[in-house]
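Aim 2, interim progress. The first record below pairs a target sequence with its C-alpha cells.
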Amino acid sequence: MVKIAPSLLAANYLTIGDEIARMRDAGADWLHFDVMDGMFVPNISFGPGLLKAAAGSGLLPCDAHLMIEKPERYVEEFAAAGARVITVHAEATNHLNRVLHQIRDCGCLAGVALNPATSPECLRYVLGDFDLALVMTVNPGFGGQKMISSAVEKIAEIDGMLRQAGVTAEIEVDGGVNENNAPALIAKGATVLVAGSALYHAADAAAFIRNVKKQ
C-alpha cells in the first residue's frame, strides 16, 4: 500500500505540534520536512531543531528532504536529530555516491531527489546505494504549485530501471499531489506520495488519505 507523507511546509506554523498529531491521526505514514537554504532553492524553511522536536514526539517518522547546497555538511546533524530518511538532490553535490554512503553510515535510509528537468539516468550509476528515489513534479522551493506533467513520466522510467537491476527502493513523488492525480502516480510505480496543500486544506484529511491509499 502506498505511503502518505504530509509536507510540513503546508502546515499551520502557529500550531505545528497539533498539525503533526492531526496528520498522524488521519493515517499518515511519514512526516516530510522540506529543508531549504535559500541557495539551492529560492526559499528558507526548517532546520534540524524543528525536526528533532518532531522526531522526539514519536508521532511520525521524519523524512528529511535536503534542498540545500553541499548537503554532506548537514547529513550527520539531521541524522542525530532523528531523521528516518535523508534525501539529497543529485544536482546539489559533486559526490552523490559518497553522500549516500554517509547517510547510510548514520543509520538512516538514503534518498536521491531529481528536479523536474533532471534525467533519471543519473540514478543508474548509484543503483543499490539508495533506498528511495524522489521525483520532483514541481520546481522545488514553494508549496501549492501545479504538477509538471512531463516529470510524471520519470516515475515509470525509474520503476523499470529498478526492476531491471533487481534493486528494491521506494519511489516518492513530491509536488502537486492530490486525490485526482494520485491513482495515476501509483499506477506508474509511486510508493510514497508527499501531500501538501491538498491534504492540509482538505475538509477531511483522514478521508483524503483513505481515498488515496485504496487506489
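The second target in this work package is listed in the same format:
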Amino acid sequence: EIAEAAARQWLRGNLRFVDAENHIVFQNEIKPGSPELTDIFAREVIGANDTSAGVGYAPLSETEEVVLATERYLNSTSFKAAFPEAGEDIKVMGYRFGRHLTLTVALAFVDRFIPDLKSYFDRKAAIHDEVQIFVTREAKTMEAVTVDINTLDDPERGEGGVYLTVLGTSAEGGDGGQVGRGNRVNGVIAFNRPSTTEAAAGKNPVSHVGKIYNLLSHEIAGKVYREVPGIREVTVWLCSQIGKPIDRPLMAVAALILEPDVGLEDVQPSVAAVIDRELAGIHNFTQRLAQGELAVW
C-alpha cells in the first residue's frame, strides 16, 4: 500500500499526461525478506545487509554539468509552459572533442499538441533554437556547441518517422527500462568515470549499503573538494562487509588530483578528517535518505 501510494504520487508529480489510475497496472511483488537480513533491523547497531562498494567523485566536469543542466531545463516547469508539446521522456548525450561540445537529445513529443507533420518540425526547430541558446550560455569554456534533436526523424516517412507519443514517454510503447540502467546517483551516466553496478532506487535507506555508500561517497567527495584547499579532483571509494556496522566500512579510500604546488602531506589530515566526520554522521545521512531529501537519479 505504501509503495503503490508513493508510485502514484511520483507519477502525478512528474508525468503530466500519465493517469496512474487508468494507464498503469501496479503489480506488487513485495515479500518478506530472509530472516538473517531482516534481523539486522532488530539489532542495536545497524549492520550492512551486503558486501558491496560505492564510489563517488567531485567536481562534475563542465560536460557533465551541461548535460545535467540541459535535461533539468528541458523538464522544468518553465520549459513545459513554453513548449507543452515536449514530453518528459528525455535523454541527453554529451560528447566533447577538444573545446567542441556536441549534445544529442532524444525528446518525446506529445501528439495532442501536434496537429500535423509540419507542426512537428516547426516546434522541433523552435525547441532546438531554445536549447542551443541555453547550452551555449551554460558551456562557458567551449569554443563551439552543436545540438541535435531526435536524429532518427525522417519527414519522408510521415508520422512513423517522428518521435511522437500520447503520454510523453516511450514507456507507452513497451520501452519501460529497468532499475539500475538509468542515471547514476549524481544524475548522469559518465562512461569515463569510476562507477559500480549497484542500483540505488527502490532499496532501503537504513542498511542497504549499495544505496547508502554510493550516495555517501559522492557526498564525501563533494565536501572534500569544497572544504580542503588545493584539491583539483577527488574520488572516494567505500566498501562494506555484510553484518558489520555501516559507519565502519572495511575500506574508505580517497584518490586525489592536487593543484601543482600542493603536496599530499598538505591535504591528507584534512581529507581524513572529512571522511571520518561523514562516516560518524552516517545515521543522520540515512535519515535524510529515508525522508526523501536526497535524489537517487
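The domain at 62-173 is CATH 3.30.300.340 (GMP Synthetase; Chain A, domain 3). This observation will shape the mutagenesis plan for the next reporting period.
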